[in-house]
Amino acid sequence: MKYQFGRCEFEAESKYLTLRMRASNDVLDDTHALRERLDADGFLLLRDLHDRDEVLEARREILTVMAEEGRLDPDASLMDGVAHPDPKEVATSSVRGREHLKTDSLKRVVYGRRIRTVFERLLGGDVMSYNFQWLRTAAPGAASPIHADVVYMGRGTHGLLTCWTPLGDITPDMGPLVVCQSSHKWRNVIETYGRSDVDRDRTQGVFTNNPAELVDTFGGRWVTTAFATGDVVIVNLFNLHGSLTNCSNRYRISCDTRYQRTDEPVDDRWSGTHPKAHDAFWSPETKLESVETSRARWGI
Ligand SMILES: O=C(O)CCC(=O)C(=O)O
Ligand SMILES: [Fe+2]
Questions:
Q1: How far apart are the C-alpha atoms of 37 and 265, rounded to whole Å?
Q2: Helix/strand/coil for 42
Q3: Which residue, judged by its Cα, is nearest atom 8 of ligand 1?
């Protein structure tokens, strides 16, 4: 079976893609080993970290609102999240316009004690989370482009970490998160693209539209898996990642959040109770530079 990833289709367990993302539960109680694993791979998969019922409650509340909006197939069971066969919207994994779906049950999961404790241990001190939830309801056909989070939120500490939380089971055909193993160590990328800022530079935030390039030219490998309710993935700020294309008939629902140490600088776009978020990048007036032009400018 082939998996669609942007313009490419990859066979799994090939040099391009593996569905065997390694779980780090074996070192969950060993802070030193956990940090070493994150540093080596650029990500940590922790299976079954959250209480499944709490995650399912968040899923149910989100899907209830989506059903009221007519986005779901009325003939399918609510919790399956099957998209309406006659979609009224363009399929996107964008996080904009999702405020009404960010219920208390969602916040209880993503800011809960269990996940906070993991970040306190990884970061070695008191931690805070950005008060913005990158909630994604990715319809059939949607995918996230290849990027590192630093270009969207790199004005504060580079010790910032992302937490990707699937809100329900997400099989590989549903367009899950896909990370490029060890790409956070690629100096030529970090020192060029990794220093860019989408609002200052008016760039797309995307490193490449060709997933095969990161394998063929940079020597990386794309890694994902079948995620289950309760799992989380923690991702380094410089790690290149995106999502496979959602080729199923169901919404892929997930939320990404950010944690950092409280005593380190915070990116001003994401600080405070009502973060101002992206100004230039999200403004309809801004003309963003093409990926090709940015890459030529960076000489990479
Ligand atoms: O869920 C996605 O499609 C992308 C997630 C992502 O980019 C992130 O968690 O930083
Ligand atoms: Fe990201």
A1: 25
A2: coil
A3: 256
pLDDT of 139 over the 90 cut:
yes
Report which residue type is found at 194. G
Domains in the chain: how many in total?
1
Assess whether pLDDT exceeds 90 at residue 95.
no
Instruction: Name the residue range of residue 7's domain.
Output: 2-298
Residue 164 alpha carbon to ligand 2 centre in Å:
9
Give 120 Cα–ligand 1 centroid separation in angstroms: 22
Residue 96, pLDDT score: 85
Q: Which residues line ligand 1 (CB under 6 A)?
A: 93, 136, 144, 149, 162, 164, 177, 241, 243, 254, 256
> Tokens in use for 89?
């919207």
pLDDT tens for 145-198 read: 999 999 999 999 999 999 999 999 999 999 999 999 999 999 999 999 999 999
**CATH number of 73's domain:** 2.60.120.620
Mutate to test the pocket of ligand 1, among 4, 130, 132, 134 (most ligand atoms within 8 A of CB): 134
**pLDDT digits over 247-271, tens only?**
999 999 999 999 999 999 999 999 8
CB 235 within 8 A of CB 42: yes
Give the Cα separation of 252 and 167 in Å (integer).
8
* Own/partner pairs, 115-120, CB within 8 angstroms, 24+ separation: 115/49, 115/50, 115/163, 115/165, 115/232, 115/259, 116/259, 118/28, 118/46, 118/49, 118/234, 119/161, 119/163, 119/234, 119/259
Starting from the CA of residue 255, give the closest ligand: 1
- The residue to mutate among 44, 164, 167, 238, having the most atoms of ligand 1 within 8 angstroms of its beta carbon, is 164
Ligand 1 centroid–CA 174 distance in Å is 14
